[in-house]
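New here. Your pick:
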Amino acid sequence: MTVDQQEIAAANPHVVRKSGHETDGEFVQFESTIYPDSVDSPAADELTHEPWGLDNDFEHIHPDQEERWEVLSGELRVTIDGEEQFLEEGDEISLPRDVPHQHHNPTDEPIRVVWERRPAFQSEEWAESVYALAQAGETNAEGVPNPLQIAVWIDAYPQETAYPTVVPVGVQRTVSSLLAPVGRRMGYRATYSRENVETRP
């Protein structure tokens, strides 16, 4: 990243470029910074936000949405159904719905990307909740929350969730529907925001 890009990324690590409301639900578009390959990288110390769901490289699927990515700076590694590709500045890629994929920053520097979800559904609200909870310190070092919180999210956002491929989506949704009431009773919520983060008591 150039100095100007670093300043922009530090000030706005995750922003909404186009909301689902603006596109009549066709898509929602974000611009985000992705952590270096190692969160212990010296460059990671310069970032002003905590790692969150976008920084994980687990293989997952979106049963109901297509994803689109554009690299603004740096290099993004994308694996689609086992086939690895490397995207550089200006490169774009579409990730079909219901196809296993991964996206990851393989470098020692943060990268900047634009990414979309199509259709929008409630992806803006979902992404804000995932991001805000990590910034509140309610996740682990990789930005992953408590399993009960995940269950509440899957139950509330079944179309927006990124589902790990290690367990069938149907199983994850069924288990989450059973665990979500427990999570809600314990104070976990579906919706959080940076302006007013409501963390678990």
